[in-house]
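The instructor's notes for this session suggest beginning with a concrete chain rather than abstract definitions. Hand out the sequence below and ask the class to guess, before any prediction is shown, which regions might be ordered.
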Amino acid sequence: MGDGDGWASCGLGHTHWGRFGAAGLLAYHRDSAGQVWVLLQQRAWWGLGGGTWGMFGGALHSHEDVVTGALRETAEECTLDPGTVSVHGTSVEDHGGWSFTSVVGSLPERAPVLPASRETRRAEWVRAEEVTDRKLFEPFARCWPRVRDAMQGLVLIVDAANVVGARADGWWKDRAGANARLRDDLKRLDGGVNGLPYGLFPYDRCFPEVVLVVEGAARGVADEPVDGLRLVAAPGSGDDTIVDLVRQGDPGKAHLVVTADRELRARCEEAGAAITGPRWLLERL
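After discussion, reveal the predicted structure:
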């Protein structure tokens, strides 16, 4: 047993399992035809909500974050390899003094999953539109309408030339150096970002795929790779490269372009991307 196993009360007068809160993994796979499949757990008959369906999860330990806890609980309850999950975001249901966090993540394939503990009766991949046909665990039924709309990854494309120009750090003296500083600063997004513009996703915290597009004299910045950051050296116009990235992107992911360039904003919006200005990004670095 972990130190989080036990009952806790919340500000709404409810009693919940998990002394330090709880978290679960909403794992999904989007196949080549665009069909979204959701991995569901049927809870053991002897437990709370016995026989109902929901996401894998459970009580958090005092020392772990919600993503770690959700992945650990899932690995304890079924045979899914947590290392294959790409986490896209978290959604919190706060009861006042106690909370449950849904961790939303995708898998590259719909691998067979079997029960791995007495808490799991069955594990099944279910079409997203058929989830509500099951008898759902009440807390999962309550959060499903919200997390259902969150089953999508986010690609954050940064127009380096434009963002660098919004920083008063002497970029005009050394464009390549300013781009390198921005590249290094983007590592701070590894822990996720809050406050997505326009309510793009119902996430309290999002873990986007970050792409930095550099051009001209700063193209060499892309020769120094940084873990967790995709660097793209534009062969010509940086604007054209950014638009191509949006148009050729994974249809299962949304795109958010960071730029203040009016013409580029219009082109990206026409290609289907959302737009935000450099200030939004710089406030998070």
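Then share the key points. Residues 91 and 204 are 5 Å apart (CA to CA). The mean pLDDT is 93.
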